[in-house]
Write a structure and sequence with these properties.
- The radius of gyration is 14 Å and the shape is globular.
- Helix 1 (16-26) packs across helix 4 (112-127).
- The mean pLDDT is 90.
- By secondary structure, it is an alpha/beta fold.
- The chain has helices at residues 16-26, 48-56, 78-94, 112-127, and strands at 8-13, 35-40, 61-66, 102-106.
- It has a four-stranded parallel β-sheet with strand order 2-1-3-4, with helices on both faces.
- It has a single domain (8-127), classed as Rossmann fold.
- It is built from four helices and four strands, in the order E-H-E-H-E-H-E-H.
Length: 137
């Protein structure tokens, strides 16, 4: 019996993040069906509650996929996104899930190969972890 791929949620910004997902698809790259991509207008719109909800609903890991620093279409300070990311990682540690279940990736527009490298590497890391126990609200 083969091991089931971990449930991964990717919050991808509508601009560079999503372009990487599309470029990977156009290049013929495939990732497991257990990887779900959620389009958001900008990573600055992601908050702790949304990330924690993904874990509550069964995510084993979450990737925040956004524009390279300085390339945000909304001119959002990357520090704001990093601050929310770091705070959420701290909460994951407090909950006993581990901060390593949440990663952030800033990729260049259309970097399908970089996207696939990030996803496959993260899947491998998550597979090595103990199963996540869903966070209950």
């Amino acid at each position: 019996m083969s091991k089931q791929a971990p449930n991964i949620v990717i919050f991808a910004c509508n601009w560079d993040g999503l372009s990487c997902v599309e470029a990977a698809s156009q290049a013929g790259y495939c990732y497991p069906a257990s990887v779900k991509v959620v389009r958001v207008s900008c990573l600055s719109r992601i908050h702790q509650g949304l990330i924690l909800k993904a874990f509550e609903l069964g995510a084993d890991g979450v990737i925040l996929l956004g524009c390279e620093p300085g390339n945000c279409h909304f001119d959002i300070d990357a520090g704001l996104v990093t601050h929310e990311y770091e705070n959420t990682r701290s909460i994951l540690n407090l909950l006993g899930l581990g901060e390593e279940r949440l990663v952030i990736a800033h990729l260049a527009h259309g970097d399908g190969y970089g996207f696939m490298k990030q996803v496959t590497g993260f899947i491998t890391e998550v597979e090595q972890m103990q199963p996540a126990i869903p966070v209950k609200a």
